[in-house]
Amino acid sequence: MAGKDHAGSRTGDVEGAILEAARDLLAERGLQGLSMRTVAERVGVSATAIYHYFENKEELVHRVVRQGFQRFGEYIEQAMRAHPRGSLERVRAVGEAYLQFALENHAYFRVLFNLQRPHPHTIEDLPEGGGYGLLRRAVVDAMESGAMRSIDPDLMVMYLWSLTHGLLMISLACQIEQCPEFESDTMARTPLELFQAFGPLVREGVLGTAAMTAGAAPADGAAGEE
Amino acid sequence: MAGKDHAGSRTGDVEGAILEAARDLLAERGLQGLSMRTVAERVGVSATAIYHYFENKEELVHRVVRQGFQRFGEYIEQAMRAHPRGSLERVRAVGEAYLQFALENHAYFRVLFNLQRPHPHTIEDLPEGGGYGLLRRAVVDAMESGAMRSIDPDLMVMYLWSLTHGLLMISLACQIEQCPEFESDTMARTPLELFQAFGPLVREGVLGTAAMTAGAAPADGAAGEE
DNA sequence: GGCGTTAACTTAACAACGTTAAGTAGATTG
DNA sequence: CAATCTACTTAACGTTGTTAAGTTAACGCC
Predict the structure, then answer these.
(1) Digit-coded pLDDT (tens) for B44-86
(2) Among residues A116, B15, B160, B167, which one has the fewest Cβ atoms lying within 10 Å of its Cβ?
């Protein structure tokens, strides 16, 4: 009975079809919409057939997300290829690629950062997978070329990653791309626009160039209230 | 039959007891461990009794989290009171309070940032609730006192919030407090230590003070590969 | 060419879940 | 005193992940 033609079945690679259906459902309806029975129905097999290829739902989801992050790595590699080694632009481009991919595939990100209990064992399994190594290389290069101050590169990577990831998570929590209740013009901007607007702050810091050459007015020294 | 003594019941405030049981379960076992039946069992009523006080599970969880974020607001207010108005220290302390509270109550945070579909309607309902306004005030004060460069305060708040929140999310994804697989010394640090280590980067930027007074070696201009 | 093993499924069923419907004891009220 | 309301209860529905047991086709082997 191998290769029988059910509705929408692909003769042969059932495991691949399950992964594909699961991926589509995750993107379409989120983790809650990805049920074993729905996946099975799309593939054209019974729900329990999935257990022949995957240990349980958790492993199925994990495999789907892992697959997604391989594409993610390619995004980042492409961003790096597009800019000269050692440049700040390259570092910035990696961040933008992170953001862009996450916005286009937000279901993956939401899921990956919620697998709490057992899964992420190695750093390769972590949210950005091999992307960490790529960003780190871009940072080290930029430090060597003098485009960036020389400090502990892992600290620098963590700083850049945190900033980008936080912006992403807040944007996603505000319901994809836009949060209409934000009244301020600033908040109405897309995550990518905000990321770019962060540029001067990231390069020169919150003190700013002016504050470093000229002394500014001192703050009142008393502990304020309200 | 009001005020009957079931196991662990509090005579009188059943609604409060439900909220309390739900809060404990959320902290103990996460969102998955918070089931209507388990909550009801702890309170000493039947599962469906909960629907007399809450419309559905979503509302129950929402109320629990909202309650948690009220305590969170108090954390931040206290951090602000402890430092002089207009100072950078005050801004930093708000960030630390954010981090500290989130680490001590990570169940709240995980949940709040995963309510995707309907809920967060107003900015007050958003992840940090009224904390946004408090941080914004600290930032505006710091700008006026000259302790911080003067730019769009909402942009500055978004920058600081993103950085702190991202660090938090990454740390939580790495399984509370510590991620043993990280080999680097940098990554082995606690979120709070990392936050403090970010200090120079946040104040002076990734270029650094040195790079702004003296010209650095230029980067190679060709598009790099690998 | 029958035989045993295995891969690839199937149906039936279980426990747990959120939720609804219908009923009921006790207090409050006209 | 009947009617209503509050604060629940039990029973049940549909869906979920998952397990157990059975079935069917294919393959290697003497």
Answers:
(1) 999 999 999 999 999 999 999 888 888 888 889 999 999 999 9
(2) B15
Name which of B151, B202, B224 is nearest A85 (Cβ-Cβ): B224
Please judge whether B159 and A198 are an interchain contact, meaning their C-beta atoms are less than 8 angstroms apart.
Answer: yes
* Cβ atoms of residues A129 and B179 within 8 Å: no
Ramachandran angles phi, psi of B223, nearest 5°: -65, 120
* Chain A residue numbers touching B208 (CB-CB < 8 A): 148-149, 151
Q: Please provide the DSSP assignment of chain A as one string.
A: -TT---TTPPSS-HHHHHHHHHHHHHHHHHHHH--HHHHHHHHTS-GGGGGGT-SSHHHHHHHHHHHHHHHHHHHHHHHHHTSBTT-HHHHHHHHHHHHHHHHHTHHHHHHHTT--SS---SGGGSTTTTHHHHHHHHHHHHHHHTSS--S-HHHHHHHHHHHHHHHHHHHHHTTTT--TT--STTTTS-HHHHHHHTHHHHHHTTTHHHHHHSPPPPPP-SBP--
Chain A residues in contact with B106 (beta carbon < 8 A): none
For A58-114, write each residue's pLDDT tens digit: 999 999 988 888 888 888 999 999 999 999 999 999 999 999 999 888 887 778 776
Residues A195, A174: Cα–Cα separation, whole Å: 16
Per-chain mean pLDDT for chain A: 80
Nearest Cα of chain B lies from the Cα of A206 at a distance, in angstroms, of 5
A174–B126 C-beta distance less than 8 A = yes
Q: How far is the C-alpha of B62 from the C-alpha of B120, rounded, in Å?
A: 10
CA distances from A50 to A40, A96, A118, A135 (A): 7, 37, 21, 37
Contact A83, A90 (CB under 8 A): yes
- Tell me the residue type at B184: S
